[in-house]
């Protein structure tokens, strides 16, 4: 009776694997690049993460270079080579523990649904079945797709609800 119950951790409203591609970014058409993505709806934000096991791509997509550069900048004198190595190892182990130990994936990109729209994509947008087209106020257009009919219907409903709930923000 000493402590009030702590509020629940912010629950994700929906998450699943989906196939995703951007078709427009900042108002400009971009080439389709369909990829499977762990998709999480949290509040009015849609988060696309690399799927489970996508960890090694963290190393390959340039962020390792960024960590190495930061470590190098801080270890600017040759005698501080040991500092550089320690910095690199610590940074990498931190990232890998977050990604694998925490059972989470790093966000690849996020979109703000406030002021956006969702509708079933027309046939000229994709030859695939069950494709949703999401447009954001920032000029991003995405296609999201699943072969699972009921799953994509749930997403359609959830995204519509989210967009109308946050319409006036
Ligand atoms: O709308 P598009 O350009 O016909 O989309 C297809 C292409 O992106 C294609 O890639 P390449 O043009 O690089 O070969 C993809 O492989 C297809 O999956 C795209 O079409 P769908 O209809 O699957 O969205």
TrEMBL record:
<feature type="domain" description="PH">
    <location>
        <begin position="22"/>
        <end position="164"/>
    </location>
</feature>
<protein>
    <recommendedName>
        <fullName>Rho GTPase activating protein 12a</fullName>
    </recommendedName>
</protein>
């Amino acid at each position: 009776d000493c402590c009030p119950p702590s509020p629940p951790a912010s629950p994700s409203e929906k998450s699943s694997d989906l196939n995703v591609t951007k078709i427009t970014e900042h108002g400009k058409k971009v080439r389709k690049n369909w990829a499977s993505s762990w998709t999480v709806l949290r509040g009015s934000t849609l988060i696309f993460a690399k799927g489970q096991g996508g960890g090694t791509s963290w190393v390959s997509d340039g962020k390792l270079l960024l960590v190495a550069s930061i470590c190098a900048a801080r270890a600017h004198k040759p005698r501080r080579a040991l500092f550089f190595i320690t910095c690199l190892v610590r940074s990498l182990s931190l990232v890998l523990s977050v990604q694998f130990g925490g059972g989470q994936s790093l966000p690849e990109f996020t979109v703000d649904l406030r002021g956006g729209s969702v509708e079933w994509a027309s046939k000229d947008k994709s030859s695939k079945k069950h494709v949703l087209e999401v447009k954001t106020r920032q000029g991003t257009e995405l296609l999201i797709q699943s072969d699972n009919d009921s799953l994509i219907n749930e997403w359609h409903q959830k995204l519509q609800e989210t967009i109308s709930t946050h319409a006036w923000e």
